[in-house]
Amino acid sequence: MPADAMTTQPNDRAQHLLRVLIQRFIRDGQPVGSRTLSRDSGLDLSPATIRNVMSDLEDMGLVSAPHTSAGRVPTPKGYRLFVDTLIRFREPKGGDMAKLKLQLSSSADDPDGLISAVSRMLSDVTSLAGVVSVPRGQQAVLRQIEFLSLSDNRILAILVINDREVQNRILYTDREYSASELTQAANFINENYAGDAMPRVRDRLVADLEQLRSSMNKAMVDIIAVAQSAMDPQTSSDYVLAGETNLMGFAELSDIETLRRLFEAFSKKQLILDLLDRSIHATGVQIFIGEESGYKILDDCSVVTAPYELDDGTIGVLGVIGPTRMAYDRVVPIVDLTARLLRSAISQRS
User: Fold this and answer.
1) Residue 28 is part of which domain span?
2) Which CATH number do you get for residue 271?
3) Whole-model pTM?
4) Boundary residue ending a domain (188, 211, 231)
5) Which of 23, 34, 181, 250 would be a feasible disulfide site paired with 47, CB 3.0-4.6 Å?
């Protein structure tokens, strides 16, 4: 946000009119004129006075006037003021709460099914796109490594991570190594580095290589030098998205080119994962409005997220994606409640 973005705050009357304007625009999706504001605001103000207030709000960057209408619409900056200071959040309705709890309880015994169910549930309850990231696991710890020789100067590194998880990595070398050389190298790594987190094993191997050159034969050093690249943890970060077709129902997102770029971003996943990662250590609900996401394709969207943390240290993020004119007063409490219910459901299952 520019340094001078909020040097002037609207007065109480202007804030009230801005709240009414945003609420009306969220409901109808149409620019709001001064006569409508005069009728809806409950204030004894003439349309001319309201036009003056709207002009002031426009100068502050909180509303704008589309070329085709004399009415105003909120800007991302106006929405930000609205959600930070003007909004009145509503408790989720009893029916919404019952639906959330029912779907969580019915899927609690299936971790993968639970993530999918929560994504669909968020979409159903909010009529937006629901997204839930797969929980990010505890830090990967190396328990054991083995090497197997493959053809074409390749080595298969078999890693046992966190006692049970097995990962395979293909390593490329300059020459072939004997089974004896590979066993010696694996034994050395297991004896000296097993039990450490993977990034620390990698860093220690890099730091120790110089000293190892003077105490080991070249073959062993070469294998270990190649093996350190296998210590980069491979995360299975992913997310489940549901209800993206709901976005087609909003006029500002419904043109073919916008939908194509949005769906392409969803399919490539990295953009959404990056956005979710920015919320993973947040406290409570985060709201990215329009350009605040940092991604141009989401300039007409808002993303509401909340992290959920489990007793074993795993952590994930859930939320919804929709137009900037989403009903924040209803959506934000639903996202917050769902994160708390998901944490409880998974904790009870474990």
Assistant:
1) 12-86
2) 3.30.450.40
3) 0.70
4) 231
5) 34
